[in-house]
Design a protein that fits this description.
Elements: E1 3-8, H1 13-23, E2 31-37, E3 41-47, H2 50-56, E4 66-72, E5 87-88, E6 94-99, H3 105-114, H4 124-139, H5 143-151, E7 158-164, E8 167-176, E9 181-184, E10 189-192, E11 204-207, E12 212-217, E13 223-226, E14 231-232, E15 237-238, H6 254-260, H7 262-270, E16 274-275, E17 280-281, H8 290-295, E18 299-303, H9 305-322, E19 326-330, H10 331-334, E20 346-351, H11 357-368, E21 372-377, H12 383-387, E22 390-393, H13 406-426, H14 431-442, H15 444-452, H16 455-462, E23 470-475, H17 479-494, E24 497-502, E25 519-524, H18 530-542, E26 546-552, E27 564-568, H19 576-594
Helix pairs in contact: 3-4, 4-5, 7-13, 7-15, 9-13, 9-17, 15-19, 16-19, 17-19
């Protein structure tokens, strides 16, 4: 959530900054702004989209080859032009943009008001830039030192970028709990919340670590120091990201493109890890910890949102074939309920971005208590990737649509490989059965391709549900998390209320909702508790519910009862979520499009939730 872009170099900054903001629109935001320095400091911001900002600045002075830009997702203060970033200092000599939350901003604000500061906005960000100005004047220090001192006074999370009209050849950035990456070009530097705005300009990047400040000069070398004033040597990495992956490629929406990319993202997440000829699974990222995982008495999976649903699938996988007890925790709840964590526990943190604030906070707490932390994330160099003991990347490629699709199936793929590897190490799965599962897993990308051919069929019947107000999603076993994920997708992008339930729990309350107006999506594949789910469908039908069923190809029993039916290829029960989730993604997508919703950027949502 929120997006930061910065530039310093010989080129006009504005076009680079605006294009960078456009690349970051997927993160979710409600306002946008830009600050530029030429002979003076110019600041322009507006409520709405980046396109609204572009319209607003037409005819204005946009000269300058140093600047910062921001897309804001409101936390402190309502979404409007005044609260949009950047923010000025009191004397309007400094401009600052900020991701995160300054928790003690209220007390700092009160103190600054006593010193004569006047604030225009309701934001914690304006408090921070006034604080930096105040420190600089009263401590009689240079700007970099003022930033360092001020950051030692704040409590909370931040990623900031700062420019000063008195230092027109300097861009300052810092981070704690919110990501920042610096791109190094030929005589120029770029700054962004993630790598997407940088890829067309440079492949050389530096990821800032926790509590680090970057001093970025117009002419000279990048310097990094901590807020405790310890100098650090910048570690330059090569960016592995293609510009084409950030384009829609002829699709109407990124979400649709990413649904269709799932055969590739699943295959890439298996590539080099699953070897049919040798009958092995090898995960290089956890090789030093796999024995410890195999001996673990308990695994705790920590995640949020869609990743939490992937973790639920992971719970079934690990308990089913690896025979290790698993607890699945919301990151936001885990850290606040004084959990019992033992030194022999394994904590698996799952996050698409690798920057999810609640998940990060949860693993830091677990790490302090001595647990071994394993990461599953999609973004190289992300905070979770750096702060875990070991981990496995999902190789889903950039996911721009806010509603996660290919990241979910890639996470489930990696968790399946992980469970298979640990089960093999423990010796509690027969070699013949293990090989059978590997052979079946290798066919999944092809079966996903087959499932994608159902798109037109789903489009056709989805029209009927355009104006539905509620949906119920039901599944059992491995399909229960699929029901939760399907309901979440519909909520996220179509704004229709939807709930996912274990099918057997329907009669413990939700059945009261069922009538002829209630669409009920039932995942009723042949594997697992098929007969039980069939009984649940009978109960829905008796109450005139409208049934959309996801079934195994060739099913005849559900066909007698369902109003609409989607047939997916047959597979092993543990791999069904990789297929069954795809029709639910299509259903949510087509309903959202017909409701004229912003599919890729649904209201109030952000792609990467970097604040608590």
């Amino acid at each position: 959530m929120c997006g930061i872009v910065g530039y310093i170099g010989p080129k006009d900054a504005y076009p680079i900054l605006i294009k960078g903001l456009q690349r970051l629109e997927y993160r979710g935001y409600d306002s946008a702004g830009v600050a530029l320095i030429d002979s003076d400091l110019k600041l322009y911001k507006n409520y709405g989209k980046v396109a609204d900002l572009e319209e607003y600045v037409k005819g204005k002075d946009l000269a300058g080859n140093i600047g910062i830009a921001h897309t804001r997702w409101a936390t402190h203060g309502e979404p409007n032009q005044v609260n949009a970033h950047p923010h000025f200092s009191q004397d309007k000599r400094l401009a600052l943009i900020h991701n995160g939350i300054i928790e003690n901003y209220s007390s700092l604000r009160e103190e600054l008001i006593k010193r004569g500061h006047k604030f225009e906005s309701e934001t914690d960000t304006e408090v921070l830039v006034h604080l930096i100005e105040d420190v600089k004047k009263n401590e009689n220090v240079d700007l970099v030192e003022a930033v360092r001192i001020a950051l030692n006074m704040v409590i909370g999370a931040y990623a900031i970028a700062l420019v000063s009209v008195d230092n027109p050849d300097l861009l300052i950035a810092a981070r704690k709990g919110s990501p920042l990456v610096i791109g190094i070009g030929e005589g120029e530097f770029f700054l962004a919340s993630d790598a997407t705005p940088l890829v067309e300009y440079t492949k050389n990047v530096v990821y800032l670590d926790e509590e680090e400040i970057a001093i970025i000069p117009r002419n000279g070398n990048l310097e990094i120091k901590t807020i405790k004033n310890k100098k650090k040597t910048p570690y330059v990495e090569t960016l592995e990201l293609n510009l084409s992956a950030l384009e829609k490629g002829g699709y109407d929406h990124f979400m649709l493109k990413e649904i269709y990319e799932q055969p590739t993202s699943i295959k890439d997440s298996m590539r080099g890890r699953l070897d049919i000829d040798k009958g092995t699974v090898k995960l290089g990222g956890i090789i030093d910890y796999e024995e410890k995982m195999a001996k673990a008495k308990r695994i705790i999976m920590v995640a949020c949102g869609t990743s939490w649903h992937a973790a639920l699938v992971g719970e079934y996988l690990f308990e089913d074939i690896a025979r290790i007890p698993v607890e699945v925790e919301y990151g936001s709840e885990f850290r606040y309920r004084n959990p019992i964590i033992n030194e022999d526990d394994i904590v698996i943190a799952i996050s698409q971005s690798g920057e999810t604030a609640d998940t990060l906070a949860a693993i830091r707490m677990a790490k302090e208590k001595g647990a071994t932390i394993i990461g599953v994330c999609n973004v190289v160099g992300s905070s979770i990737a750096r702060e875990t003991h070991a981990g496995v990347y999902t190789h889903a490629g950039p996911e721009i649509g806010v509603a996660s699709t290919k990241a979910f199936t890639a996470q489930v793929t990696v968790l399946s490989l992980m469970a298979l590897r640990i089960a093999s190490l423990k010796g509690n799965i027969k070699k013949s059965r293990f090989r059978q599962l590997l052979i079946e897993m290798e066919t999944i990308p092809e079966k996903v391709e087959e499932t994608l051919k159902l798109a037109d069929e789903i489009l056709d019947f989805s029209k009927i549900f355009t104006y539905s107000r509620n949906f119920l999603y039901l599944g059992r076993g491995y399909n229960f998390p699929v029901a939760l994920e399907g309901a979440l997708k519909l909520k996220e992008i179509s704004y229709i209320h939807a709930e996912g339930y274990p099918a057997a729990e329907m009669k413990h309350g939700p059945i009261a909702l069922i009538d002829k107006e209630m669409p009920v999506v039932v995942i009723a594949t042949k594997k697992g508790a098929y007969e039980k789910v069939l009984s649940n469908i009978e109960e829905i039908k008796a109450r005139k519910g409208r049934i959309i069923a996801v079934v195994t190809k060739g099913d005849t029993e559900v066909k007698k009862l369902a109003d609409f039916m989607v047939e997916i290829p047959e597979t092993e029960e543990m791999f069904v979520p990789l297929l069954a989730t795809i029709p639910l993604q299509f259903l949510a997508y087509h309903i959202a499009v017909r409701r004229d919703c912003e599919v890729d950027m649904p209201r109030n949502l952000a792609k990467s939730v970097t604040v608590e």
